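Workshop exercise sheet. Pairs work together: one partner reads the sequence aloud, the other fills in the structure field after running the prediction. Swap roles for the next sheet.
Pair: D.N. / O.F.
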Amino acid sequence: MNYPSEFDIKSMLSNLNIDYEIDGDTEKKIKNISSIKNAKPDDLSFCYYEGDKAIDLISKSKAGVILCKKSLRGLVHPRQGAQLIFLDKPRYVL
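Structure field:
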């Protein structure tokens, strides 16, 4: 079976009927899933923390796409070329 080399997380979330908001590169594709601390620009990661700990982890991460809690919207911003996806339960998507 052939699997695509890149994935569009927006399509996956929409197919799962998950309500989300995006900030950053809206066309970002991912190739792998990784922890927020070890992620690379082509990786998807998530942050289930809130507040200062979440802001610190997200700001330092090199992940291309980070799933994070809606409560962080407006408190943290993606780096150039990256995407933050705000949703209710980021941990449950992966």
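Discussion prompt: The chain has a mean pLDDT of 91. What would you look at next?
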